[in-house]
Amino acid sequence: MSDERPVFVIHGIANRDPAAVAGRVAELSAAALDRWPMHSVYWGDLGSSTLGVDLAIPPGPGQTWDVRDGAAPPAGRDAALGLAGPVPLTPAQRLELVRARARQTLDPSPIESRGAAPEVTEEALAAIAEAWPRTRWLRHADDPTLLGEVGAALAAAALDTARDAGHEVRDPGAIRLAIRRRLPELDRVAGAAVGAAGERFYTWARIARAQYVALTLGDVLVYQRHGERIRARIREQIAAVAGERAGRKQPVHLIGHSLGAVIALDLATGEDPVRTAGLVTFGCQWPLFHLFDPRGGQLAPYDGSGPVLLPDSLGRWANLWHPLDPLGFVASRLFRWADGSAPRDVRVEHLLSDQLYTHSAYWTNPRLVSVLHETFAEPVDR
User: Fold this and answer.
1) What sign does the dihedral 309-311-316-320 (CA atoms) show?
2) What band does 76 get if pLDDT is binned at 50, 70 and 90?
3) How is the chain split into domains, by residue range?
């Protein structure tokens, strides 16, 4: 049987619209069938400022497109920045595409033109296979068209060398030397193209996403330095809703997402704690933060001798995490209460077809609602 304590929901980073935050909390409350009085606690106006962020962004390479409008960069956004194709290739497949096009150029069909002598073709193909592993950029390319054009260019170099010899006795190493010279040149051209595309892409990314970075990373930095001011805001809102005794003499329930989870745990374990009967966190970095920089309050640093002792001011704690959420961490192996019990880590399943960015997907996951019911039962006396 769940109790009737008020539930205070603390949002995470990059939230600047209190109405949107309140709407998300209202949706969660409705999904939980309004079992508890659920209140949105807003602190986003105390977070980082984005004013003048563009003044710190390095200038771009003189693109004609306007990156400040968030337009997509002209170069592809894939990992190879212009060298990737629709399907990743193996090293052997890349080399074979180059050699196949070279062979086609050197030995065209009789209808097209007269091809090179068989020994020229074999020498050119052998030289390509020998020199290919020493390329820096092309050996990572997955674009079949690009690889084919490289093969054609190398074949042309071999043909030019053979024709220059005319009727003279051909130097058997001339074609190999021509390939060894031409392939590094083509490789440098590919590298220059990648560099230009990369500069344009990262310039676009830095400028187009600067505001978002300022809101996300900026909020974390602001909290690390001015956390007491943000925690004071949370305390004020709890008192305004539930009275001065709430969180002091009368434990409350807390829900925290991302940095909101960090704030909730800092409040529940601080020297002057907000007494918390039940806590549910999701996408939580607090366990990792405690290892990097101990949170203080009633917590001891982790010294490797055993789990860190949690104070009695924190009752139940359930922590949801998702395998594809890079910002969600687990707590049960790092923390214990004095009675030997541990926080409950709950793995959340999620369909990528619903949403790719799993750090925010917890809000609408049915598992969250069931964990709320399980956690906000009558607290265990410790």
Assistant:
1) negative
2) very low
3) 7-51+210-375, 91-207
Nearest alpha-carbon partner for 280 in 43, 30, 25: 25
DSSP 30-53: HHTTT-S-EEEE--GGGS---TTG
CA 373 to chain centre: 31
HSE toward the beta carbon, residue 179, CA cutoff 13 A = 31
* E-strand stretches of 276-343: 276-282, 308-309, 314-321, 335-336
What CA–CA distance (Å, rounded) separates 158 from 155?
5
Per residue in 143-196, pLDDT tens? 899 999 999 999 999 998 888 765 454 576 899 999 999 999 999 998 888 877
Distance CA 113, CA 301 (A): 78
The token pair that represents 264 in the structure block: 């909730």
Q: Which fold has domain 7-51+210-375?
A: Rossmann fold (3.40.50)
What pLDDT digit, counting tens, does each position of 32-45 carry?
989 999 999 999 99
Q: Give residue 243's Cα distance to chain centre.
A: 41
Cβ atoms of 369 and 32 within 8 Å: the answer is: yes
DSSP state of 69: G
Q: How far is CA 329 from the centre of its chain?
A: 15
- Residue 283 in contact with residue 328, Cβ under 8 Å? yes
